[in-house]
Amino acid sequence: MGRKWNNIKDKKAAKDKNTSRIYAKFGREIYVAAKSGEPDPESNQNLKFTLERAKTYSVPKHIIDRAIEKAKGGGEENYDELRYEGFGPAGSMLIVDALTNNVNRTASDVRAAFGKNGGNMGVSGSVAYMFDSTAVFGFEGKSADETLELLMEEDIDVRDVMEEEGQTIVYAEPDQFAAVQHALNNAGIEEFTIAELTMLAQNELELFEDDLATFEKLVDAIEDLEDVQNVYHNVEL
């Protein structure tokens, strides 16, 4: 594959600068996952996956517990999962995932963020075809060769295993997320720098000067929206 994970790493690092925003987004996501089935991660795979992701962002236990208790108590808030697609400067592309209890508000906010910051909204499917849904894991403690061998022994098909900046990165099919994580846990890997289902651009774009500044302003404006959970793009940062 030869695809670097810097895009994901930089996105995570940028988000980590605003931990209160991260915690609020995870609180909402955990609540939705817990409400979608049993509020027990052992019987609710969606919740289990969300909690594992929260762990990589160091979401405090009290925030997790509060969201699950809210779901147990039959919270009346209902959220819709939405995806928007759009364009930034110089051919840049963005995918925006949101969780919202007010579809009209979110659509208006996302459209305004694009329009006021050098971008424009696209129709459904205008951008997504240039991205691949991918499970990504980053960790230390095992080489790429060792990792590939142990995953092959478990009969898990991965897209790529590589070493980047002192870490081993695994790229796999989205439906292999749980299998990869389980195999790595069994091999003694308990801590991950990243454990995500993400959208990776098939081809990355390099921007310069004014275009790059405009693009970064656009992404910041979208990520600052309360209902936005994730922003994916094709720009090499």
Automatic annotation (TrEMBL):
GO cellular component, one term: cytosol
Coarse class of the protein's main subcellular location: cytoplasm
Presence of keyword Cytoplasm: yes
A Pfam family it matches: TACO1_YebC_N
Record keyword Thylakoid present: no
Compartments, as annotated in UniProt: Cytoplasm
GO annotation (BP), single: regulation of DNA-templated transcription
Keywords, sorted A to Z: Cytoplasm, DNA-binding, Transcription, Transcription regulation
All copies of domain TACO1/YebC-like N-terminal, residue ranges: 3-74
Entry superkingdom: Bacteria
Molecular function in Gene Ontology: DNA binding
Chain ranges of the TACO1/YebC-like second and third domain: 79-235
Matches recorded under InterPro entries: Integrase-like_N (IPR017856), TACO1_YebC-like_2nd/3rd_dom (IPR048300), TACO1_YebC_N (IPR049083), Transcrip_reg_TACO1-like (IPR002876), Transcrip_reg_TACO1-like_dom3 (IPR026564), Transcrip_reg_TACO1_YeeN (IPR026562), YebC-like (IPR029072)
Family membership: Belongs to the TACO1 family. YeeN subfamily.
Protein name (database record): Probable transcriptional regulatory protein ERX37_08750
Source organism: Macrococcus hajekii
